[in-house]
Specification:
With 261 residues, this protein is an alpha/beta fold. Helices cover 39% and strands 14% of the residues. The protein is globular.
Length: 261
């Protein structure tokens, strides 16, 4: 079992940390004792996230950033470095879903480019500018939040699936490239995670799942942000010190269940 004090005074940066899975991880790491920084393009969501975690008795720092923009990422990591001098954990969670669902011949390539800019270019930029800070840590780790869409698709979701497939490759490429700096790099691939209660107030909703929805999962329920957060706490700790370049699928068994009809 991981020590309850492992993350005390550890410095953690979570991109896309203002809502959804990112916010769930921010709460978990803050509760574990980490100095937690969240970044997000959505200023409103970021400020709400700070207030929400403060109501939980936790303190986080919010810094606005569009991870697809190199100069913004560079400035983000400069601020983190000025505040904490080193970074123990980088979690690349920021991502956008397909704004396009339709036949290939109708797709605007600007949509494809934007999704890849955030979901794939963003993690690479963050890793690039975080590396000097990570190299100062005793057990540095990067965790990329991928998706089961990297391995399976619904029709006409080209940008998102491609971006997450690329993130899988980026994960093992970084893992074998950052050995000199002792940085472990892993990924988690969430399946269906219900984030309705983890959105900013204007977009929050009460989840309702049918019996059929739950039955798609061998564990009998839909996933929660806490499920991803628990895995992140382990994979970014020294207890996972012999794990790098790997992806942990967290989907309640959905991707291994054969469904007919």
């Amino acid at each position: 079992m991981m020590s309850n004090t492992y993350y005390t005074n550890k410095n953690v940066l979570i991109t896309g940390g203002a809502q959804g899975i990112g916010l769930g991880m921010a709460l978990a790491f803050a509760k574990a004792g980490a100095n937690t920084v969240i970044t997000d393009k959505d200023e409103e969501a970021g400020q709400e996230a700070v207030q929400r975690l403060e109501q939980e008795g936790q303190k986080v720092i919010f810094i606005h950033c569009d991870v697809s923009q190199e100069q913004e990422v560079k400035a983000l990591l400069q601020q983190v470095g000025e505040k904490y001098k080193q970074l123990d954990t980088l979690i690349n969670n920021a991502g956008i879903a397909d704004p396009f669902v339709g036949p290939l011949q109708e797709m605007d390539m600007a949509v494809f480019d934007r999704v890849l800019a955030v979901n794939l270019r963003g993690p690479l930029l963050c890793a690039k500018y975080a590396l000097p800070l990570l190299a100062k840590a005793e057990h540095p780790a990067i965790l990329n939040i991928s998706s089961t869409r990297a391995f399976m698709s619904e029709p006409n979701t080209f940008p998102y699936s491609a971006s997450k497939g690329g993130l899988e490759a980026l994960t093992h490429s970084l893992a074998v490239s950052l050995t000199e700096e002792r940085v472990r790099v892993n990924a988690v691939a969430p399946g269906w995670i219900e984030v309705g209660e983890w959105q900013k107030q204007s977009e929050r909703y009460e989840p309702h799942h049918s019996k059929e929805d739950k039955a798609q999962h061998p564990v009998g329920r839909i996933g929660m942000p806490e499920d991803i957060a628990e895995a992140a706490l382990f994979l970014c700790s020294d207890k996972a010190g012999f794990i790098t370049g790997q992806t942990l699928t967290i989907d309640g068994g959905m991707t291994v269940k054969m469904i007919y009809g």
